[in-house]
Structure formats: C-alpha cells, structure tokens
Fold:
Amino acid sequence: MTLFSLARKNIRRNLSQYSLYIASMVFSIAIYFTFVTMKYNETITGEVEASKKIASIMSSSSVVLLVFVTIFIFYSNAFFMKKRKKEVGLYALLGVRKRQIGFLLFFENLLLGIISLIFGIFFGFLASKLFLWVLLKMMDYQAVAHFTLSIDAVINTVCVFFILFLITSIQGYRVVYRFQLIELFQAEKQGEKVPKPNLWLALLGAVLVGVGYYIALANMVTSPIWKNLSVAAPFIILACVIIGTYLIFHSFIGYCLKLIKKSEGLIWQNLRLLTVSQLLYRIRGNAQTLTIIAVLSATTITAGGAVFGLYYNTKSTIQQADPFTYMYVETKDTPKLNQKGKSFDILYTEFDAKELSDAFGPYGKRNYTVMTTNTYNQLARLIDKPTIEVVGKEAVIIDPSYDERYSPDYKGKELDAVKVKKSLRLKDVTKENVLNSSIAYTTLIVTPDVFKQLERTSEKMIVHAVNNTSLTVNEAKKIQQKMPEDARFSSYPIDVKQSMENIGIVLFVGSFLGFVFLLATGSIIYFKILTEAEADKGQFMILHKMGISMKNMKYSIAAQVGVIFSVPLIVGMIHSAVALKAISSVLNMNIFVPVCIWMGIYSVIYAIYYIFTVRAYTNIIKRTIRNEG
Structure:
C-alpha cells in the first residue's frame, strides 16, 4: 500500500470529523471564487453603471477573505495535528521512518485541500448566478444574471489556495521532526494552561467592559470624556472590551461556576456536578479561544447590523431628503415638460446668525433659503406634512438634520438680514423639509410681508416641484439629461437607486464575509470540543460502568456544549448591541428591526453548529462504549 493510498484511506475513515472543516473550506473557496468572478462578469461590466466600483470592492473583499481563511486554515490545521500526534507516535513506535510519516501527513493535508478546492470552485460556479442575482437585487437592478465561468477567476483561485494548502501540508510534514515520541503520545493531555479563578480579576474584567460601554454610549459631541480622549477614545473602548472579555472568560464565569459547584442543593442532581466541573475546566482552559470568538462575533454582528440597518432605512432616509419625485430650478435653458407640477418662488439671502452657536463654534453670516408660509403649506399638503403658521417677524427654521443633542438651540434666537434692516425671531425648528436636498437645506419660513421686503435685495428663483410616484428611474434619467447643470435637478428615484447601489454592494460583501467568519468560528469551537471529547472518553466509560444511563450522559454533553457555544455568542451579542446603539445614536436612525433580523440569522446558524457538535460528541461516546464496554 502506497503512502498516497494510505492517506486517502485515513481521510475516508475520519471523514465525519473532517466534514465541517471541508464544508467551511468549500464555502470559503466558493465565496472567494464568486468575488473574483464578479470582476469579469459580463452582466455587471455591460449593464451595471457601478461596475468599476463593484470590481474594486470585490478585489478588496477577496483579499480580506483570503487573510481570514488563511488564519482559519492554520488554526484548524493545528487542531488536527494535535489530534493526530498520538497516531503519528504509534507509527513511529511500529518502526515507520519519520520521512514516510511526514509524507503521509503531507499527502493527507494536500488531498483535503485539493478536495475542498475542487468542490469550492464547482459550487462557486453553480452558485455564481444566485450570488449575482442577490447582488443585483440588493442594488435594485432588474438585469438578468447569466452563468459565466471565468478562466481568470479559476486560475486565480487555484493558484492562491493551492499555495496555501501546500504550506499547511509542509507544516504537517514537519510535525514528525519537531516532537519527541513521548510528547506525541501525551499530546491529547496538553491543552491551554488552566488558570485559577480570581475574584479581583473577575471584578476587573466586569469593570473594564463597563468602562468601554460607558465611553461608547457617551455623547460624542458634548461628553467631556470624548473631548479629552479625542481620537484615542475608540482604541480605549476596544482595549477595555477585549481585555475585559478575556478576564470574564478567565475568571468571572469560572468564579460563578465555582460558586454554583458549592451549592449542594443545586449540584447533587443527575450529572450536574460533573457538568459544572467540566465547564469550569473548559471555560478557564479555553479563555483565549472563547475571547477571540466573542470579539469576532461582536465585530461581525456589529458590521453586518449597521450596514443592514442603513440598507433597511435607505428609502425612508432619501424620502426625508427628497420629499418630491423631482425638483429643479427654472433657468433660461430649462425645457418645458409634460409632467404636471407646482412652481413657486424662493429667495437666497444672507443672515447674520451670531446668536446661534453649537459645539463647533458660532454660525456667523451665512445664506438661507427663504419661502413664505403660503408656499410651504401648499407644498406640505401635497406630501402630507404638517402646515406652519407664523405672524409678524416670526420665522420657523427647517433643519433636516436637526438633533437636539448636537444642533444649536434655535428657539427664541434672532437672525439679522445683512442687506436690509430686518430681523427675524425664530419661533420653532422642524425637520420636515418640503424642498429636495439639492435645492435647499436650511430654510426659513416667513410671512408674505417679510418675504416681499427681503425680495428687493435677495436672489430670487423659481422652483418647479413634481410629485409622481409612478415615475421610473429611466424616465427620471431622461428628464435629467435634458436639464442644464445650473437647474440643480434632484430626483427621488435616481437618489434611491444610487444609494441602493452603494449600500447594496457593501451589504452583499459584508453579509457573505460575515457568514464565512461565522462558519469559521463555529468550526473552531466544533474542532476544539471534539478534540476534548476524545480526551473525555475514559471518564464517560467509567460513568457507563457505574450504571449511568446514556440519556443522562447526553444531558451532560448537551449542557456543556451549550454553554461553550452560547456564552461567547451572548457576550458577542451584548458587545454588538452596545456598539450598534452607539452607531444608531450617532446616525440618529432606528435600526432595531434590521439588527434583530441580523442577530436572528446569526443565532440560527450558530444553533445548527451546536446541534452537529452535540451529535458528533455523543457519537464518539456511544462508539467508545460500544467498542470497549
């Protein structure tokens, strides 16, 4: 029997243990192949306006994905090598030369990589149409996705991953030469150093996380903490949360489990004592791994939730900025349109707003758009917005980005017209703009009398507003092409389309990168728990001989695995919830619904990994009892 055939036989025998590793690798390669393929896809290059942007983003994303997959492969390979060390030691004990054992491991790793590469490219090709359809759907395009096999993408993927698998295979070859025979047989007994739980370290971890949360949730503009820390604040938040998370796994949870272990009324039922004792070892011994998984989960959920939140609110955000289907300023070159709309007069005039100030200093002299209450109310009724009433020298200011935390206190302040002796007293402030953002932003609503007085020294413009919900993007673009640049044409359909394109690309990339990260972290826990399951076979064998039923042992296994899976997930979700709360506060946007959807999807996939892990762990114990019991 040749070494290559022996390697193939070993893979077939251990296929159940390699299955999730191969599945994760196949998915990662498929995503990488898809991202590379997107650059050359005829549908994108021929029909999508943002094709160059897509190609650039896909190239950058494929590099990020490759870096992460490389780390994942090396991490997973280390687990498999640790698991195989006893087997390697047995080969050496039987007189097999180190060179032959090294080549055996080399061929096994290389064969696993080639299998993953073949299936990854195959499934990537089959799924490319689906991925392209998802991308076009997210970008709000109606183009038809076609099957295309890019030879350049195939060569790129094969070269990159073959080199990667070749390096890991060489690492496997070197294992034989790096360890003594006794070390190979005791490899399964060696784990991460298990620290003792310390109450003060546990409290320090909780305090550090609390400090990180407090800084993150503080007002970035008005908080003295952010003013003093400046650009260092985000780095301090990250340091506090990461170090605090490590200490939580290192001591806090271990200390809690130690207290539970001392509770006689709770612990002496079924196998709870064994379960808690095992968890005490597992969590403290794997503090570093669990911290990495919690932080990575928090990063993935935060990034995905934030982008999905922006995507979810795109149309409502654009609706706030562009209340009318389209709007433009009348010039001598603007054509006459068949679309029915309203025309009205507005002014551009300069006011001295020295009474107004915010965190960034005084406003000083600046231009404002001015319109009468009659004009505002007429437009407001067309788009179902509340009307406004002012008298005398009163005025209402429209600030679409108004936020009482950051914006100046407008109420009661006075504005002095620079060119005429006229002052206005601000009665109120509203975010309900009736002008599209390209026409005007900060606007003053005044009485007709004041408008007439300002008209003599101000720039007057005639603006046309059309509200036609059935207008398509193509129709809006045709109108836009007819308009001169100084018409400042603004269209809701076009702005929505552009925003959906930009955010849709980011959401597509972020979603699939997030799923790859999720599969990788789930696989890491799976490998680690199954490695520990092999070491625990003797303990469960003793329980079987003591008469403990398989049902109780299953309960203990499910509880242990459940805690190992759920604790980093819960910690990661709490971290991401705080981060997303801070992000939504800064953006002044409600992202509760999209974040819940995102967390739900993440949790479901994690739960699937949990089910597979419990089943695999249980099968190892069943097989041991059947063979040795």
